[in-house]
Specification:
Hect, E3 ligase catalytic domain fold; single chain; four-stranded parallel beta sheet; 3 domains; 12% strand; three-stranded mixed beta sheet; Rossmann fold
């Protein structure tokens, strides 16, 4: 008799899987449909329509489910056939809607192969428990997943699908560098860091090399902007605005990443209208009032003059070619002869092979600082767990310590090549000074201007004459050049020069290696190299004034 009644009732079949990703739960829908159709034949159910959906039920808003409920409210069916109540609802709103339709008589039959239901107070109570259990399962699963994610982050493991340039290593349960795509990503960072390429051009060039996204699609400009801001590529993990020290292999250095951020910040500033390409525009200031020197063209010649924007100024025009001639004379005065350059480079090459041990002290000091930072991070976590710090304060302080830790780690990794790089800077300086004469003889004011930037700063013009503040290394080079000129010798013996025979600084800095130039006559060459290194963010060891 019950089967006869069910045959007369119209029933909807509803099947659902939790995700619309085809590679996950592939067989779920197929298995449900087969089992439900077999159950319907066995029970003699009158199925008038089938609803199939691939969407999670933990939140309300399923389109096909809502369509089915609307049809039931219109009396197009009197019941639902599903595998289990958790297929219908895993949230309180959808579960409540079904129970309300049972209360109002819109739904008189609910059939499940794995669950019993009868439209009685006891049956509705059991159904509400089933819906509650389904919601509890989702909530508990969510908390377990969040706990697992937090633990992965603490272990330095990326907790999601690998970002572009990395792949998920299922065996190691972490991300590994995608060798093919990583080289293109690194190239994108290097190109943008130069400041010569806008994002659109970086995209065009890197895409042409073969870089594509996860689904094989070409990357957009916004994809490149997101990529160039992603800290994952230099070894840090940023998750929910909090930084973690990643254990994965970085693709770039933090120094390169910081350079890209600086370029991106500068490019976001408003641009001024394009001006005429004068060589010395914005390069000089007035020696009298301090205003910028501008350039004007009169009767086929370029003239430099003070803008006089602050106060009245008595300075007159200066011919551009006259200033160019003065720059050439300045460059000539810091040139170093071939003989001096060759002998100095030979000494530095020798010292470069002996300077490795001098770095050991600084390596140990940096490692001690790193240990201290890790201790502070542990204490910071204890304070947060004890309730002495709010989450916002903890995240802000942790971010500062994590960035400082990353800097120290990169500094330690760079110590191996630091001594070599320091001597390379010294050798490069000598080579540049040796080429000064050639640059001064060129009819290229741009090259002269750029070389002058290396020699000094604070460039001013007063009474039609150039003045500036020379860098310490170039000041010494100028003294040597003057002494060599007085001696009237091309291959001057630099070892006899009083400019170079100076003692060590009373407070030697990091770059003053104790092994450098043991011969007293040659020691002051270390001062020259250190002064040059000051431009590379090292402190110069300046010689005593004569």
């Amino acid at each position: 008799m019950d089967n006869i009644n069910l045959q007369t009732k119209k029933i909807f079949l509803y099947a659902r899987k939790s995700t619309d990703e085809p590679e996950r739960q592939v067989l779920s829908i197929e298995a449900q449909m087969f089992e439900l159709r077999e159950f319907a034949k066995k029970e003699g159910l009158n199925i008038v329509r089938e609803f199939v959906e691939s969407k999670t039920a933990k939140e309300p808003g399923r389109d096909i489910f809502n369509e089915m409920i609307s049809c039931i409210e219109k009396n197009e069916a009197e019941g639902i056939l599903a595998w289990h109540p958790d297929r219908l609802a895993r949230n309180s709103i959808d579960g409540g809607r079904i129970i309300y339709l049972v209360d109002t008589g819109k739904i008189t039959t609910l059939k499940f192969p794995t669950f019993w239901f009868d439209p009685t107070p006891q049956g509705k109570f059991m159904l509400s428990i089933a819906f509650g259990q389904s919601k509890y399962y989702v909530d508990n699963l969510s908390e377990n997943i969040k706990r697992g994610i937090r633990q992965k982050l603490r272990n330095g493991i990326w907790p999601a699908w690998a970002p572009l340039g990395y792949v998920n290593d299922k065996n190691a349960r972490c991300i590994a560098v995608d060798k093919e795509k990583a080289k293109y990503i690194k190239r994108a960072f290097e190109m943008y860091a130069t400041g010569e390429y806008p994002l659109a051009q970086v995209r065009k060039m890197i895409n042409s090399l073969g870089l594509v996204g996860k689904k094989g699609k070409m990357l957009s400009v916004s994809n490149y902007q997101y990529m160039l801001k992603n800290k994952i590529y230099y070894g840090m993990i940023e998750y929910n605005d909090e930084l973690y020290d990643g254990k994965h292999e970085p693709i770039i250095t933090k120094k390169l990443f910081d350079s890209v951020q600086e370029v991106m910040m500068n490019k976001s500033k408003p641009k001024t209208p394009k001006l005429k390409p004068y060589v010395y525009r914005g390069f000089f200031r007035c020696g009298e009032c301090g205003c910028f020197i501008t350039t004007e063209t009169q009767k086929g010649h370029n003239y430099l003059r003070c803008t006089k924007r602050k106060n009245p100024c008595t300075q007159r025009y200066a011919r551009e070619d006259a200033i160019t001639s003065q720059i050439k004379e300045v460059i000539k005065k810091v040139s170093l002869s071939d003989g001096w350059a060759k002998a100095s480079i030979a000494e530095f090459e020798k010292e470069k092979m002996e300077g490795v041990q001098a770095e050991s002290f600084h390596v140990q000091k940096t490692r001690d600082e790193l240990v201290d930072l890790e201790t502070k991070l542990d204490r910071l976590l204890d304070l947060q767990l004890d309730g002495n710090l709010s989450q916002m304060e903890y995240v802000a302080k942790k971010q500062k310590l994590m960035l400082a830790k990353k800097d120290l780690e990169e500094k330690i990794s760079a110590f191996g090549t630091k001594s070599k790089n320091r001597f390379e800077l010294m050798i490069n300086f000598i080579k540049e000074a040796n080429q000064a004469e050639n640059i001064a003889q060129q009819e290229n004011p741009v090259a002269g201007r750029d070389f002058l930037k290396k020699i000094g700063s604070n460039f001013r013009i007063a009474e039609r004459s150039l003045s500036f503040s020379p860098q310490p290394a170039w000041r010494i080079a100028s003294k040597y050049h003057a002494e060599a000129q007085r001696a009237k010798a091309t291959d001057y013996d630099f070892t006899k020069s009083t400019n170079w025979r100076r003692g060590w600084d009373s407070n030697p800095r990091e770059a003053c290696a104790p092994t450098a130039f043991r011969e007293p006559r040659l020691r002051p060459l270390g001062h020259l190299s250190l002064a040059y290194l000051s431009r590379q963010k090292h402190t110069a060891c300046e010689p005593d004034p004569q």
